[in-house]
């Protein structure tokens, strides 16, 4: 959302927040107070001096007992609230995006949210943003004061949804005699990317690259012909909010590729400096931000992997 600044609430912010968005229970002061020991971060979305929404990042894990037992290592975003006059403007998505980035900035890779069973709109939003249901349910009881000063007690049943924010993969550049680059598009997606995928447990990165190429385009690569082009990070092509890091390999094209498994379409991309590849919305960020530039520069021709026996961290 344009014009929205999401940041941790400072002492100066809190005074502006309390004046512009007063609450009977002084909720803002309570949440800011909890940040003193570093266990939480109170995020506030601002439009200038006007607060639009808030959310709490709980760095110590989920609040619910069952969720904490099942997923003790995730960070939880809770108490997400958008002011009534600001709803429908993308404020919630902006807060979620800022929370995800804060988690990545600490080198962590999973964020969780608890969704009440009577809030289908919130569940749809989170699922659209890539959060998956865990099947773990908790019950929370709390009290609050409404606008008439009436104290109310609530009992809420909510399920934990979790999103993985960072993923390690391998991929391979394969070029034909014209120098065009082989790309694939997976079924149900819009963007083209290099053949490749996740590394299986106990598998070397080279072995994973060889296996993925065989599965996706039906080509048998010789492991000895596979060299490392580079390792880069970029936004995932088809999963909002996900960042991927990929070991990108290069190998000679051993035959004619054919789409198989989950691949719906193949494409040969000319690697030509006269083409503005960055303007092509059908290409993955990994291609437009890293791989194509390296190929245009003529780098990486057959360099051997730095750590052929390593597994991703």
Task: Provide structural commentary.
- The protein is an alpha+beta fold and 313 residues long.
- It folds into two domains: 5-164, Gcn5-related N-acetyltransferase (GNAT) (Aminopeptidase), CATH 3.40.630.30; 166-296, Nucleoside Triphosphate Pyrophosphohydrolase (Alpha-Beta Complex).
- Helices cover 23% and strands 34% of the residues.
- It is built from seven helices and 13 strands.
- It has helices at residues 11-20, 27-34, 65-70, 91-105, 120-128, 205-217, 285-296, and strands at residues 5-8, 40-47, 50-58, 75-82, 110-116, 132-145, 151-164, 166-173, 181-186, 196-198, 227-235, 243-250, 263-269.
- The chain has a seven-stranded mixed β-sheet with strand order 1-2-3-4-5-7-6, sandwiched between helices. Strands 10-8-12-11 form a four-stranded mixed β-sheet, sandwiched between helices. The chain has a two-stranded antiparallel ribbon with strand order 9-13.
- A hairpin with a 5-residue loop joins strand 6 and strand 7 (151-164).
- 34% of the residues are buried.
Keywords:
313 residues; Nucleoside Triphosphate Pyrophosphohydrolase; alpha+beta; four-stranded mixed beta sheet; disordered C terminus; 2 domains; Aminopeptidase
List the helices and strands and how they pair.
Layout: E1 5-8, H1 11-20, H2 27-34, E2 40-47, E3 50-58, H3 65-70, E4 75-82, H4 91-105, E5 110-116, H5 120-128, E6 132-145, E7 151-164, E8 166-173, E9 181-186, E10 196-198, H6 205-217, E11 227-235, E12 243-250, E13 263-269, H7 285-296
Parallel strand pairs: 4-5, 8-12
Antiparallel strand pairs: 1-2, 2-3, 3-4, 5-7, 6-7, 8-10, 9-13, 11-12
